[in-house]
Amino acid sequence: MSGEPMHVISVSYGNDSCAMIQWAHEMKLPDVHVVYCNTGWASPSWPMRVIKMEAWAKSLGFQPHTVSSIGMPDLVRIKKGWPGNAQQFCTAHLKGVPFLQWIDEADPERTAVVLIGKRREESPDRANTPEFIYGSEYHGGRKVWHPLYLHTEADRNALLARAGIEVLPHRSKECSPCVNAKRATFLSLSPGEIERVNDLEVEIGKPMYRPKRFGALGIHGVMEWAKNGRDRGDIENEEAACAGLFGCGL
Question: Do the bridges between strand 142-145 and strand 132-136 make them parallel or antiparallel, or are there none, so unpaired?
Fold first, then answer.
């Protein structure tokens, strides 16, 4: 199909990302590339998920790519602080920069279409997600397409079922924990993930999570908050708009 643009799916390999890949397969989109950015902050189990999903994408005739970022630990050291709930500089540096470096090399003419699996139903912050963004300044002026923008959770799950992929009971763990993590996420953290946060908090002298929000200081304090089961701090709509630009958590 000559003349067709390259299609690039920005993924984290969570439920929505995998549904997006299956949708592209069913629509028989040509020249599909699936790009995952290694944030250096994934859950210990997530790399195996990435390997499995890359193999699946390749079996569909797509071209999977993993690109590397500076990594959360070094980013935090350089910034001398953690990303905020509303100012997630992690998105720009851990996903935006490596994604743009890759696509600018793969698509120097900037004719590619970037696909992201955002859905309006997912959260209030995404309720006005458009189907298309033309000339996205965050994607080098390329067109961004959200094909699943009207899909319900049931629609998404149906795509995953047709792909033979089990629905995860949680969001992508490409960044674990995220600055916008909820109680259930904290309670699912491994000891290694907790100590990784604690070590960086001690090193830079700043806590990852806002004490005013959790009534606790440091990751160990936040873990105690999560175990106590109090409602304070468990905010329903926790995603800032920037988090969806490159498929964070999807």
Answer: antiparallel
76 vs 85: CA distance, rounded Å = 15
pLDDT digits (tens, 9 = 90+) for 184-243: 889 999 999 999 999 999 999 999 988 767 777 899 999 988 888 665 444 444 444 455
Q: Burial-class residue 99 by CB neighbours within 10 Å (0-12, 13-18, 19+).
A: buried
Burial (Cβ within 10 Å: 0-12, 13-18, ≥19) of residue 48? exposed
- Chain region(s) in the chain for CATH 3.40.50.620: 7-172+238-244
Nearest to 242 by CA among 43, 46, 96, 103: 96
Collapsing DSSP to helix, strand or coil, 165 comes out as coil
Which of 175, 172, 115 is closest to 139 using CA atoms? 115
E strands, the chain, where?
A: 7-11, 32-38, 63-68, 113-115, 132-136, 142-145
Q: Which residue has the higher pLDDT, 248 or 44?
A: 44
According to DSSP, the β-strands at 7-11 and 113-115 are: parallel
Domain 7-172+238-244, CATH number (from 3.60.20.10, 3.40.50.620, 3.40.50.2030, 3.50.50.60): 3.40.50.620
